[in-house]
Write a structure and sequence with these properties.
heterotrimer; A mainly alpha; B mainly alpha; C alpha/beta; B: two-stranded antiparallel sheet; 1% strand; C: alpha/beta; Rossmann fold; 2 domains; 12 helices; 16 strands; globular
């Protein structure tokens, strides 16, 4: 009984981490229609930067925010210099984002070396909390809170602020938005910065659970793709719910179907895509 | 591409073992040709049908596994090759039926999922595939009694298959089916309105595409005499996609150039440049910046610009 | 930052001659050429970089001269995949005409090139642990100075049953051959000595979250793990975090608590008992020199990967002494290599059995915090451990290689 409770709670927790990982990708793809295949690298680079900031003695949360800021700057640079001129050219976008991911992965290897680097759990969140018959790590619970907070913040920004309205206008009909005086290119840069920042932040958040190592980007990118496609494109709350569903698939799938361990996420994703191409909670077909 | 230039190129390729000193380098050219066939196959989907697949390594790998497994089970080389071809067509059909339910990113994700599932099966179905230990191919085939073990005969064998692939691509592109494939890429709705069965056109394109990618996988298995889950990995699908895009999708020469680029960087340049992976990524980015349509179309454009400047004619449209 | 544009690494003490890349490699007919097949890019680079460090350090200590002959080291990056390993092996053998190959790193790379290298008659010294390379599918030109996957886990099973008095255990390791063979070796001896393995868990290689697996641990008094690469850091952190560490003592194979990883572990791993063929705390004179130089040059205590290639270098040196520095007679060379028997090495004394696998020490270590640093303290040494443990070789080889289901669960 307590095993199932543990798995259930961990599904929510893993879902939270997956949402933090995928929120940036969902934002960029949902609003800009760019499949940002550099996303895993942003996550990893943010995590590596986090380890360096922590090594300098900074507080965990400050390190996470600094890593996010650094990734925002890098993301902004990439968007302005490279992606901006590739609007609508899907193949070129794939080529440039994959090329950048090669470069970032090798750069991380050069700077931080090949050995895994642990990221210490922030002191205030160490230990575990009792939940009914189990004891669950506090930090993993905190991730859920953080994920929900980020989701709510993003949703509020998009739905309730003028900036969000402008972004949505730019997405729906960029030429008309321009005519209405909206600086669409600037908005897109902003969105890309935001997406990269969230990815970097997520890397530091995930660090205490995953550590940081070469290959982290390749491990994380497929998960981000699964969440966004399966959970639903064009809908941030959908991505949040989708993350939790995938957390469920993963935790219970690994235990109940050990034979399918390698494909426990791809098989459901395939089945759902075949019957519902817009994903579980998506609004429009991609 | 003019017939004369094509013939000259084939003659040049045919004499490679004569003027390339070491068997090692002949093998590199063989690898370029194998990957070129793989990329040409994928290009039918990506460039001509406009559907980006991240699962073609699945067909590539199934071909190798089928041949290796059959040979290890005692089947002769030629029947094993036929068995592999059958497996290739079945796998391509399976891929097509599942993935053509969507287009765009949906198609991409379905092909990715199928590719990953095949990879997972290769890892876990140890009784069939040997898991990550893979299956060794005891010997290369001996068509008409000629051993393909040394580098030069294998190279010629590969070259013949390569020429067949290129010719069939050229024929397809110039044919009505080829035109309808391109039509479904550019204007699917209009094609449907005109009475074309878009799904069927795409299905046939996938079969053709999968066939050549699978043949490349078969050659790859013969070349390495070994097959393991690694050939089915996502990285493998991504790598061939990069070859197609960087070389220039939708052209005949583009995938060949892209294959040459990646193979040379991975195998030759890696001996001289320690951080070759970084450099390769930088090259991809540079291609996007300077020649976003790909190496081959971009070089052709650059060539035309240079030629115009040399002749003193004001360049039309600039060199950007 | 290593923007290394020179392909051949001529080591300190050797005149750096510029070699024209396309010329056949006969310019230095006098020097012995060693080719290192390692991984410098991607996730496997972690071990690959250490392999390079170990061999480079060895040659530096010997000033690139073995048995009176100059030594050229050629380093090739396989990319960590079988096709890359094959291509680089061809490059080393056909283009660079190497006399020895050290490496490759991974078992699947080794299996892809074994037939080719044997046919080319090039002696190969690898760390790759695939059991069958020196058992059911032997290669006459292969020598392994580290260990088979199961070699260190046989004595660990003995230690767990007899000294730690554990009775019911679970094994958890990655879902691939290296994991199966390690776990199989542990299970075999543990159960022969009266223990029982009640559960075997196999998380896929790229698992991010081990919680579903750790949640299945129950009704046991200990856990054995065989994680490799960067996974031990993740696993031990999650294992402790979920409360399993407080309940079940944890044991591991050599990659799970390798000395080079100690700087990355936190207190999560303290108390872990592991078995390895190498320990940086072993106080032989050569190991003290080796560890001191590794710390000086590379800033970290060496683990099995660096020690492995360092010891391979020592084997090559000993073989060259036997053949009087000659490398043209390949069968004499491999015979000399397999006949090597050394006393003062970083792993202590060892020799090779007739299949080319090492017979040497296996150290049981406990991870402790001493003077603020993590260290693997040797608690017991099993000497003269062969790949067959105490079993009769022929009976052993009659049974299948360890796999997911062999030995089978008794429950």
């Amino acid at each position: 009984m307590s095993q199932w409770l543990l798995l259930g709670v961990n599904s929510v927790s893993l879902g939270g981490l997956l949402f933090l990982l995928s929120a940036g990708f969902s934002l960029i793809f949902g609003l800009m229609r760019i499949p940002n295949l550099t996303h895993g690298s942003f996550f990893m680079l943010g995590a590596y930067l986090g380890t360096s900031f922590l090594a300098l003695g900074l507080d965990f949360w400050l390190a996470a925010l600094l890593a996010a800021a650094a990734m925002a700057a890098i993301g902004g640079g990439i968007e302005r210099l490279l992606l901006r001129r590739l609007a609508g050219q899907e193949l070129a976008q794939v080529l440039v984002t994959l090329g950048l991911s090669f470069m970032i992965a090798d750069l991380c290897l050069m700077i931080w070396g090949g050995d895994p680097i642990p990221l210490d759990t922030p002191r205030s969140l160490r230990g575990a909390m009792p939940i009914a018959s189990i004891v669950f790590p506090t930090y993993r619970l905190a991730i859920v809170v953080i994920a929900v907070a980020v989701a709510v913040a993003l949703w509020l920004m998009l739905e309730r602020t003028r900036l969000g309205a402008m972004i949505r206008a730019g997405v729906d009909d960029a030429p008309m938005a321009r005519v209405a005086g909206i600086r669409v290119s600037r908005l897109f840069t902003l969105v890309f910065c935001l997406g990269a920042a969230i990815a970097g932040f997520a890397g530091v958040m995930g660090g205490p659970i995953l550590s940081v190592y070469p290959g982290l980007d390749a491990d994380m990118l497929p998960l981000a793709l699964i969440v966004v496609i399966l959970g639903g494109t064009g809908s941030l709350p959908g991505a949040l719910l989708g993350s939790f569903v995938i957390g469920l698939f993963y935790n219970f799938g690994q235990v109940l179907f050990p034979e399918l361990a390698y494909i426990v996420l791809f098989l459901p994703m395939l089945l759902i895509l075949l019957f519902r191409p817009q994903g579980l909670f998506g609004k429009h077909v991609p | 591409m003019s017939r004369l230039a094509a013939a000259a190129a084939v003659c040049l390729l045919a004499t490679v073992p004569l003027w390339v000193a070491n068997g090692y380098y002949v093998n590199i050219v063989s690898q370029i040709l194998i990957y070129a066939i793989f990329a040409l196959g994928l290009n039918v989907m990506v460039g001509y049908a406009g559907l980006v697949s991240l699962g073609h390594a699945g067909v590539f790998g199934v071909a190798g596994y089928a041949a290796a497994w059959l040979v290890a089970a005692g089947v002769g080389q030629f029947p094993a090759a036929l068995g592999a071809l059958a497996a290739i067509l079945l796998t391509s059909a399976g891929f097509a039926v599942l993935s053509l339910r969507a287009a765009g990113i949906g198609f991409l994700m379905i092909t990715l999922a199928i590719g990953q599932i095949l990879w997972g099966l290769a890892y876990r179905w140890i009784g069939l595939t040997g898991g990550d230990n893979g299956i060794s191919l005891s010997a290369r085939p001996q068509p008409f009694g000629i051993s393909l073990a040394p580098a030069a005969p294998f190279y010629y064998f590969t070259l013949i298959v390569f020429v067949l692939a290129v010719v069939s691509m050229a024929v397809l592109v110039a044919s009505p089916l080829g035109a309808s494939i391109k039509g479904t890429r550019d204007q699917p709705r209009r094609m449907t309105a005109l009475g074309y069965n878009v799904w069927l056109v795409r299905f046939l394109a996938f079969l053709f595409s999968g066939f050549w990618s699978g043949v490349a996988g078969l050659l790859f298995c013969y070349y390495n005499q070994f097959v393991s889950p690694n050939v089915l990995a996502l990285g493998s699908s991504a790598e061939v996609l990069l070859m197609v895009i960087s070389g220039g999708s939708g052209t005949l020469l583009g995938p060949i150039a892209g294959a040459a680029l990646v193979v040379v960087m991975k195998n030759l340049a890696s001996a001289y440049i320690e951080r070759w992976n970084f450099v390769l990524g930088a090259i991809f980015v540079a291609i996007v910046v300077f020649m976003p349509e790909g190496l081959v179309p971009g070089s052709a454009r650059l060539g035309r610009w240079l030629w115009a400047r040399l002749r003193g004619v004001p360049a039309a449209g600039g060199a950007r | 930052m290593a923007w290394n544009l020179d392909r051949r690494k001529f080591l300190a003490g050797t005149a750096a001659a510029a070699v024209v890349p396309w010329a056949p490699a006969v310019a230095q007919a006098q020097s012995v050429r060693i080719g290192l097949l390692t991984v410098k890019t991607g996730p496997l680079a972690q071990g690959g970089i250490q392999m390079e460090q170990g061999l480079t350090l060895f040659l530096k200590q010997r000033q690139s001269s073995l048995a009176g002959r100059k030594v050229d080291l050629v380093i090739a990056d396989t990319g960590g995949n079988p096709a890359g390993a094959k291509t680089k092996a061809q490059e080393l053998i056909e283009r660079d005409k190497v006399d020895f190959i050290v490496g490759p790193l991974a078992a699947f790379e080794l299996l892809a090139i074994s037939a080719y290298v044997e046919e080319a008659k090039v002696p190969m010294l690898s760390l790759a642990a695939a059991d069958d390379m020196t058992q059911r599918r032997p290669n006459a030109y292969f020598v392994r100075a580290s260990a088979t996957s199961s070699q260190c886990n046989h004595p660990l099973g003995d230690y767990a049953a007899k000294e730690m008095k554990l009775k019911r255990m679970a094994t958890i390791s990655e879902d691939f051959a290296f994991g199966y063979e390690q776990a199989g070796g542990f299970q075999r001896v543990f159960e022969d000595e009266g223990g029982l393995i009640v559960k075997k868990l196999w998380p896929p290689l790229n698992t991010a979250d081990y919680t579903p697996f750790i949640s299945q641990l129950a009704d046991i008094d200990g856990v054995w793990n065989g994680f490799a690469g960067s996974n031990p850091i993740k696993f031990n952190q999650q294992y402790a975090e979920l409360g399993a560490k407080a309940k079940y003592p944890i044991l591991g194979g050599w990659t799970a608590y390798d000395d080079a990883l100690l700087k990355s572990f936190g207190d999560d791993a303290v108390g872990a008992v592991s078995a390895s063929w190498y320990s940086s705390t072993l106080d032989t004179p050569s190991n003290q020199r080796f560890v001191a130089d590794m710390v000086k040059d590379y800033g970290n205590v060496p683990g099995g990967y660096a020690a492995g290639t360092y010891i391979n270098g020592m084997c090559i040196e000993a073989a060259l002494h036997k053949t009087g520095g000659k490398t043209d007679d390949r069968s004499a060379l491999i015979a000399a290599l397999r006949g090597v028997s050394l006393a003062d090495t970083p792993r202590g004394a060892f020799h090779f059995d007739h299949l080319g696998n090492v017979v040497g020490n296996v150290f049981i270590r406990r991870l402790e915090r001493k003077d603020g640093k993590l260290v693997n303290t040797i608690v017991k040494t099993y000497a003269n451990v062969s790949q067959f443990w105490t079993y009769d070789e022929h009976r052993y080889l009659e049974q299948p290689v360890y796999s997911r289901d062999y030995p089978a669960l008794k429950t």
